[in-house]
Amino acid sequence: MNTIKKLAGIIWIVAGPLAIFYLVRTAAHEIAKKPVIDTKIQWGVFIGVFLPIAVGFVIFGYYALKGEYTILPGNSKEI
Amino acid sequence: MNQTSPQGIRKVILASSAGTLIEWYDFYIFGSLATVIASQFFPKTNPTAALLSTLATFAAGFIVRPFGALVFGRLGDLIGRKYTFLLTLIIMGGSTFAIGLVPGYNKIGFAAPLIVLLLRLLQGLALGGEYGGAATYVAEHSPAHKRGFYTSWIQTTATLGLFLSLGVILVTRHSLDADPSASILKFNDWGWRIPFLVSILLVAVSVYIRLRMKESPLFTKIKSEGTVSKNPLKESFGHKVNLKMVLLALFGATMGQGVVWYTGQFYAQSFIENTCHVDFEQSRTILIWAILFATPFFVVFGGWSDRVGRKWIMMAGMLLAVVTYRPLFGRLLAISDEKTKTELSDKKEIKTTRKIIGENPDTLRTTAVKQFYDDGLIMINTTTDTLYAGHTKSTIKPDVKVSKNISSGGYWQMVLIVFVMIIYVTMVYGPIAAFLVELFPTRIRYTSMSLPYHIGNGVFGGLTPFIATLLTTIYTGDKLVGLYYPLLIAGLCLIIGAIYVNNKIDPNVND
Q1: Chain B within 8 Å of A62 (Cβ-Cβ)?
Q2: What is the CATH number of domain B6-338+408-500?
Q3: Cβ of A4 and B241 within 8 Å?
Q4: Are B55 and A41 an interchain contact pair (Cβ–Cβ within 8 Å)?
Q5: How high is the ipTM of this complex?
Q6: Is a pLDDT exceeding 90 seen at residue B324?
Q7: What integer is the mean pLDDT of B340-352?
Q8: Among B206, B318, B351, B479, who pairs with B494 as Cys (CB 3.0-4.6 Å)?
């Protein structure tokens, strides 16, 4: 199980930038299709909100790969 | 230290839940009355007002909530839970009441949408701070073996807040005049303010109850020991040991929980109204019944999680959602699909009305075609177009509205389907407060649990109706394409949760 936890970390590291690439590409396509302020705000909000989350996802993957989740803290004192 | 008497814990739950319920009520009435509010404050003819409208919709729910979690979470870990969630309640109640008093765009121009936007942002900020405080407060009073059960009462408030907001709106809409159509007209004109103004009474009662409560015993303990965190934000997100748990809480639990919640309650209602074209009242009462029947299950699953652990109940809820969403939404579509039914053509009614508009003798023509089907479904197609007096202009695109009144059998089938989807919500949402509380230590608990909760629910969950609807406009061939977003997020969260999250219940949250 610990090996799966670590190896899956690679998937999460790759998935973050991939998701953002897909989001930016779709946003550019949709804004070009309908260049009104509503569309720009809508997609701007999506990118602005999901970009830091994707960064967090990469960090999560990095921690997983490094084995940080192999043993979770048994109680809050370990945090 | 956290062994409050059964009578005491009931007071704690009542005080916390009442306030949280009112905060959800306040937050939801804005969303439920979005169309009326838009016509009062955000006229589409004015691009700046329309821009403010979009900002009000997006910013409050998705950007400001996590900021509220940071601002009030930090405050809660520095000065205490009681005064922080008292403050969020006052901010929320005051903003809601104030929205009910703001003069319309036609009276004060741009100031109106601007004030409403600011008040809406305050609402989002307050909501971001409320939940973490209430959940932490109750959990810190609860014995270990009943933490899931007691905190699940807080979990009912989000759904009951929606129930209350829908109920107050429907009752107000029908009580302003003996004639139903006149009542609706009055509601759209000024009656919509009543649900906002009513809020101040509810908030006053709740503030009174909360003022009489004591500070959380665990926070009082760490305060007396001098171990209160000096910088909760740095400790929560700047230290790897805690940050990794925040990330796990988000990607392994709250992200999936958020989309299951918003799909089951909000996207389902939007789908029934906009895709199935079920009429305004029916689409809302379907949700009201389903909420009423399903709400007790929050407590059932919360209590059950004390015995079997939080993880697998939440994961089972996500799994069921991923497996059954498509067939359930497909069934909603089939119930309202007139093509699968036989029309009783002899009962068909066509009614045309003409109304002269403006000084030119142009005419507004409204044609309502009422069709009846063998299972009791009634479909009304209303086409509105303008007949110009001169022949220089012609209506290119008439406004067409479809409204279906589904049969009694179909209605209760829809209630059952939405009920099942809300059961999934109770599975993922019932145990989550206890789960989050147990992940973090007392000194930074409010901050650490609030952020993943509000990103999971505000961002991933709150965006569900928008992204799902957006997908249906991009990929027009499949009416169920909108479900790919919740399926993907819930599926991913299920995998991460199943692999990484621990099912162990932390018996000691006193640290």
Answers
A1: no
A2: 1.20.1250.20
A3: no
A4: yes
A5: 0.92
A6: yes
A7: 90
A8: B318
DSSP string, A4-67: HHHHHHHHHHHHHHHHHHHHHHHHHHHHHHS-SHHHHHHHHHHHHHHHHHHHHHHHHHHHHHTT
Across the interface, whether the CB atoms of B440 and A76 are under 8 A apart is answered: yes
Alpha-carbon distance values, B124 to B58, B118, B134, B251 (Å): 10, 10, 16, 22
Distance CA B480, CA B325 (A): 9
Q: Where are the domains of chain B?
A: 6-338+408-500, 345-405
B181 vs B493: which has the higher pLDDT: B493
Alpha-carbon radius of gyration of chain B: 24
B158 and B24 Cβ atoms separated by less than 8 Å: yes
At residue B1, the pLDDT reads 47
The answer to whether residues B352 and B371 touch, using CB atoms and an 8 Å cutoff, is no
The per-residue pLDDT string of chain A (79 residues; one tens digit each, 9 = 90 and over) reads 888 999 999 999 999 999 999 999 999 998 998 888 778 888 888 898 899 999 999 999 999 999 999 887 766 566 5
Angle at B297 between CA B271 and CA B409, to 5 degrees: 45
Q: How far apart are CA A29 and CA B18, in angstroms?
A: 46
Residue tagged 């005080």 (tokens): B15
Q: What is the pLDDT of residues B41-98, one digit of tens each?
A: 877 666 666 666 766 666 666 778 899 999 998 998 998 888 898 899 899 899 999 9
pLDDT of residue B321: 97
Whether B251 sits inside 8 A of A49 (CB atoms) is: no
List residues of B whose CB lies inside 8 A of any A CB: 47, 50-51, 54-55, 58-59, 62-63, 240-245, 247-248, 250-251, 438-442, 455, 459, 463, 466-467, 470, 474, 495-496, 499-500, 502, 504, 506, 508-509, 511
Both tokens of residue B398? 């008439």
Structure confidence by residue, pLDDT tens digits, B260-317: 999 998 899 889 988 999 998 899 899 999 999 999 999 999 999 999 999 999 999 9
Q: What is the mean pLDDT of residues B477-487?
A: 93
Do the Cβ atoms of A38 and B54 come within 8 Å? yes
State the maximum Cα–Cα separation within chain A, in Å, rounded to a whole number: 54
Q: Residue B491: its pLDDT value, please?
A: 97
Rounded CA gap, B155 and B371, in Å? 43
> Which of A4, A48, A68 has its CB closest to that of B499?
A4
Beta bridge partners of B328: none
If we measure between CA atoms, which residue out of B212, B207, B237 comes closest to residue B77? B237
Give the distance from residue A76's alpha carbon to the nearest chain B alpha carbon, in angstroms: 5
What is the rounded CA–CA span in Å between residue B454 and residue B461? 9
Q: Which residue has the tokens 């099912």?
A: B503
A63/B247 Cβ within 8 A: yes
> Is A71 in CB contact (< 8 Å) with chain B?
no
Q: Does A56 touch chain B (CB under 8 A)?
A: yes
